[in-house]
Amino acid sequence: MGADVSQETAAASAGSAESLTVRDNRTGQEYDVPILDGTIRAADLAGIRTADEEPGVAVYDPGFVNTASCRSAITYIDGDKGILEYRGYPIEQLAENSTYLEVAYLLIHGELPTKDQYETWVHEITYHTFVHENIKTFMQGFRYDAHPMGMLLASVGALSTFYPESRNLTDTSIRHMQVVRMIAKMPTLGAWAFRHAQGKPYVYPDNELSYAGNFLAMLFKMSEQKFQADERLIRALEVLFILHADHEQNCSTNAVRSVGSSQVDPYSAVSAGIAALFGPLHGGANEAVLRMLRRIGSADKVPDFIDGVKNGKERLMGFGHRVYKNYDPRARIIKKAADDVFEVTGVNPLLKIALELEKIALEDEYFVKRRLYPNVDFYSGLIYEALGMPVSMFPVLFAIPRTSGWIAQWLEMIDDSEQKIARPRQIYTGERTRDYVAMDRR
Ligand code: CMC
C-alpha cells in the first residue's frame, strides 16, 4: 500500500479505483493520489518529496494548458463536438430566442428569468446607464487619438472611485448594485470612447431604447431628435453580444478571477479583464482577419494565399482554435447574422474572399487533417466593419457583452469557499546568495 499524499483527500477515495498511483523513482516510494472529477489536486503532490526538508513536487504549467483553476457551473464547452452551453442551454437556442440581457441574467443568476424577474432586471439595467458627469470629464481628458479600448479600461477602473462601497464584497445587495451598474454603463463608456476618437459630442443614453438599440444610438446619433437603428441591425448586435457573453476560463476571465481573488472591488477586477482582452492574441484576431482579407484583395488570389499558408509562410487568421477542434458553434451563428446585417448595409466586398477561403480550406487536406475550422473571429470583423466600426472598436465590442460573463465568474469565485488568493509557484532559475558589489568595483 502506498503512502498517502493527503490523508483527507486520500481517505475520500479509499477503496475506490478513482486514484492515481505515483511511484517516485528517486526514492522508490509510491503514493496514492485521489482523482476527483477527472483531476488530481496539485496540492496533493506537495507531499511527494525526497526528504522532509526538501520541497514537494509541484506542477509546471505555463499558460494553464492542462490545469483547472476552479469549479464552475456557468459555461460548458466540448471542443471536439463543437458544443457551447451557458448554464446548460445550447448557444444556438439562446442566439435564436433570447435577448442579451436575458442571457446576462442567466449567466449571473443561473436560471432564465421569469417575466417579472426579466422586467425588473431590464428596468434596473436601463436606469443605470448614465454615468457621473465627472466620468465624462475624465474621458474628455484623453488625447484626441486615444485607443477606445484604453479609454474603456481606464474608465471602468475609475468607476471604483465613484462607488467606494463596492469594496464591501460581503453585502449581497451592494454586490448586486455593482453588477447592474457595470452591465448598464459599459455601452455608455464604449460608445463615448468611440465618439471621442471621432471628435464628436458624447451622446447620453436613451432609456426608451433596448440595450443594443441604445448602444447604436449612442454611437451614431447626430442632430436628429430620436435615433432609431434598423431592427435587423439591433437584432444582429444582440446575437453578437449573446455569442460573446462568456467562454469559461479564457485569458480575460482568468485575469478577472485572479485579480478579484485579492478581494479588490469588481470594477478593478473587470478592468483587469479588459486589459487582458486588449491583447492581439485574445480580443484582436478579428482585426487580423480583416487585414488578411484586404491583403488577399480578390477571390481569385485565394488559391495562392492558401498555398502560402500550407507552406508555412503564414496562418489563415480566423481559423483554428485551442479548444474547438470542430466548427466553432459561434462561427455558424455569426455567418447568419452577417447575412442579416449585409441585407441592411450592403454586402461587405471582403465577404466574397472570406467565403472562397472557407470553401477551399474546408475541403483541403491540410486543414481537414489538423481539424482547422472557422472560429468566431472569421466573420465578426466583417459585421463590425459593415456596422461602421473602425478596427480599434472591435475589442470594445467584445468587452461590452463579455462583462456579464466576467461578473458571473467573479460572483461565483467570491462565493466559492475553495478559492484563495491566486498565487502561483515558480521554478527559480536565477543566482543565489551573492555578496553585494560596490558600484566602483562592477
Ligand atoms: N492557419 C494555418 N495553420 C494553422 C492554423 C491556421 N490558422 N492554426 C493552426 N494551424 C496549424 C499549425 O501550424 C499546426 O500545424 P503542425 O502540426 O503542422 O505544426 C497545427 O495546425 C496545430 O496548431 P497549434 O498552433 O498547435 O494550435 P493551437 O491550439 O496552439 O492554436 C490558435 C490555436 C487559435 C492560436 C491557432 O489556430 C491560430 O493561430 N489561429 C489563427 C488566429 C485566430 O484566428 N485566433 C482566434 C482564435 S478564437 C478567439 C476566441 O475564442 O476568443
Provide a descriptive summary of the structure in words:
This protein is mostly helical and 442 residues long. It contains 18 helices and 6 strands. Strand 2 and strand 3 (29-34) form a beta hairpin. Helix 4 packs across helix 7 (172-198) and helix 12 (285-296) crosses helix 17. The chain is globular, with a radius of gyration of 25 Å. The structure holds carboxymethyl coenzyme *A.
Q: What are the SSEs and their pairings?
A:
Elements lengths: L2 E2 L2 H7 L5 E6 L4 E6 L40 E4 L4 E4 L2 E2 H7 L2 H10 L5 H12 L6 H8 L7 H15 L9 H27 L12 H10 L10 H13 L7 H10 L5 H13 L6 H12 L5 H9 L18 H17 L4 H14 L1 H5 L7 H10 L7 H21 L28
Parallel strand pairs: 1-3
Antiparallel strand pairs: 2-3, 4-5, 5-6
The structure holds carboxymethyl coenzyme *A.
Structure keywords:
442 residues, mainly alpha, 3-stranded mixed β-sheet, 18 helices, binds carboxymethyl coenzyme *A
Low-confidence stretches: 7-13
Oligomer category: single chain
Mean pLDDT across the residues is 93
| SSE topology string | EHEEEEEHHHHHHHHHHHHHHHHH
Could you give a quick summary of the protein structure above?
The chain is mostly helical and 442 residues long. The protein is 50% helix and 5% strand.
